[in-house]
Amino acid sequence: MQSQNNDSEVRAKVDRALGSRAAQVPTGLDDSQYSIRASAAIVRVVAEAANMSIENGDEGDDFVAGIWAFVVSSHITYIVGTSFEVIAPIVAMDVLGLEAASDVPTLINSYNRMAQEGRVTEAIGQNVAKWIFTPTDESFDKLVMLYKLCREHA
Predict the structure, then answer these.
(1) Torsion angle in degrees (nearest 10) through CA of 17, 81, 71, 41
(2) d(CA 57, CA 78)
(3) What would the pLDDT profile of 41-88 be if each residue is shown by its tens digit?
(4) Would you say the pTM of this structure is higher than 0.85?
(5) Comparison of pLDDT for 100 and 93, the residue scoring more
(6) How far apart are CA 67 and CA 108, in angstroms?
(7) 61 close to 52: Cβ distance less than 8 angstroms
(8) Where do the domains of the chain lie?
(9) What does 84-151 look like in DSSP terms, one character per residue?
(10) Using CA atoms, how far apart are residues 12 and 25, in angstroms rounded to an integer?
(11) Do the beta carbons of residue 112 and residue 105 sit within 8 Å?
């Protein structure tokens, strides 16, 4: 029973953060579907706030959105208790479209290299966590700034 309370508390925090940006995840989803939908929604609201288009087919925009899909998925799967290895590639395809399926191995390799170096993915992940647990304009603005910074250097 404790796990269900924790699960609903975690989802409530994620939902509150998304709601602060007029986004939502459908109710009644299992943990895996919830992790996919929540992660994709976070990437989309941050990209939109950064005035970056995910659907324009620009290679740099797609790369940044794909890396963010992996970083956000890492945090969401950890707090929800689902499999990162299963969820993250699905989130990348959800965000980028199914036609991006052939790009997923490249994104995986890039994410793994970046995660080993730690600094960029760690900063993004820490700020995602801060925003989820304290969904203020300031914490969201830091995410947007990080997204723009990633795009400038992609």
Answers:
(1) -40
(2) 30
(3) 999 999 999 998 887 768 888 999 999 999 999 999 999 999 999 999
(4) yes
(5) 93
(6) 8
(7) yes
(8) 2-152
(9) HHHHHHHHHHHHH-GGGGGGHHHHHHHHHHHHHH-HHHHHHHHHHHHHHHS--HHHHHHHHHHHHHHH
(10) 11
(11) no
Enter the tokens of residue 153: 């250097």
How far is the C-alpha of 136 from the C-alpha of 144, rounded, in Å? 13
Report the C-alpha gap between 76 and 101 in whole angstroms.
21
Q: How far is CA 103 from the centre of its chain?
A: 17
CA 42 to CA 143: how far, in whole Å?
A: 10
Task: Give yes or no for a contact between 133 and 13, defined as CB atoms under 8 angstroms apart.
Answer: yes
CB atoms within 10 A of CB 78: 14
96 within 8 A of 103, measured Cβ to Cβ = yes
* DSSP three-state, residue 79: helix
CB atoms closer than 10 angstroms to residue 21: 18
